[in-house]
Amino acid sequence: METKEDIHVLMVAFSSQGHINPMLRLANRLITSKNNLHVTLATTELARHRFLSSSSTTTASAHSVVKIRFEFFSDGLPLDYDRKSNLDHFMDSLAAAGPANLSAIIQRNHHVEFNCVITNPFIPWAADVSAAHGIPCAMLWIQPCALYSIYYRFYNILNPFPTVKNPDLPADLPGLPLLKTEDLPSFVLPSNHFSVFPKLFDGMFQTMGKFKWVLVNSFEELEKDVIGSMSEIHRVMPVGPLVPPELLGEDRADDAVGVVDMWKSDDDCIGWLDQQGACSVIYVSFGSIVVLSEEQMQSVATGLKKSARPRSGPSE
């Protein structure tokens, strides 16, 4: 039975496996830290469709073990729409339809008084919805604080970065070593031609004042200096590492969260991997959003081929 002392957190996640799973791990930490804390996670109908299509047993564990209540809302597009090939239109549609639909979820749960909203980078408009309902809002940055610092300082023009006229200019940022061009993420380089993310980040990082806290997937011992430098700008709180337990040398059986799978896993490669030497295989993943051009794919393939590491797939 819930009481007035109960704490309710509404998490709003982008419909991507790499965004939802860190949210679930943070939710688990919050729930296990306080018996009277409850979490509702809201994401799009597309995510629900993919959960069901994947037939994932770990999805069930996320519902039952972690005791998270899920809510789903429309991004304004039909489920069969090709969001990956039309990313610009997808993000515009999500930004147009999302606020009203998220607000409807809050209103529909009128019996619950949400104490905080936690969102992630691709849906910054959740902060405006939170403000409209008088709820403080936090941003969960799912990457290290170093990347957050680079993007924040670049999009707010706080420090010099490489330019078209000076493409080799190093970035000298507080709390970080001197960063050469090859050390920087491609989104801040003058050679970047990806239209969606720079536009999205530009609007987001210039309006970070809407968030009361920025939660970063890191910890003090790893990034003390850069966390300290960003904390001078606004309140940054390390909440990581929000990663699978096996990466920390822990038993996966102790992982109360499990993993939400949005695609059916293909285990055909396991037999081949078992035959390779330890630390001999390179795994490359660009996530579920980025679409590479033929030229980019060829460059990656050439680099992997020249690495002389074991490989398996269509190329063989």
Short description:
The chain is an alpha/beta fold and 316 residues long. It is built from ten helices and seven strands.
Structural features:
316 residues, 10 helices, 11% strand, globular
Task: Please explain how this structure is put together.
The chain is of the alpha/beta class. It has 10 helices and 7 strands. Strands 3-2-1-4-5-6-7 form a 7-stranded parallel beta sheet. Strand 1, helix 1 and strand 2 form a beta-alpha-beta unit. Helix 4 (87-108) packs parallel to helix 5 (126-132). The model is unreliable at 57-65 (pLDDT under 50).
Give the topology string: H per helix, E per strand. Answer: EHEHHEHEHEHHEHEHH
Give the strand line-up of the largest sheet: 3-2-1-4-5-6-7
What share of the residues lie within helices?
A: 25-40%
Q: Which whole number gives the mean pLDDT?
A: 85
In DSSP terms, counting alpha (H) and pi (I) runs of 4 or more, how many helices?
Answer: 10
Radius of gyration: 21 Å
Q: Which percent band covers the strand fraction?
A: 5-15%
What's the N-to-C terminus distance? Answer: 59 Å
Instruction: Tell me about the largest β-sheet.
Output: 7 strands, parallel
Low-confidence stretches: 57-65
Give the beta-strand count. Answer: 7
Gross morphology is globular
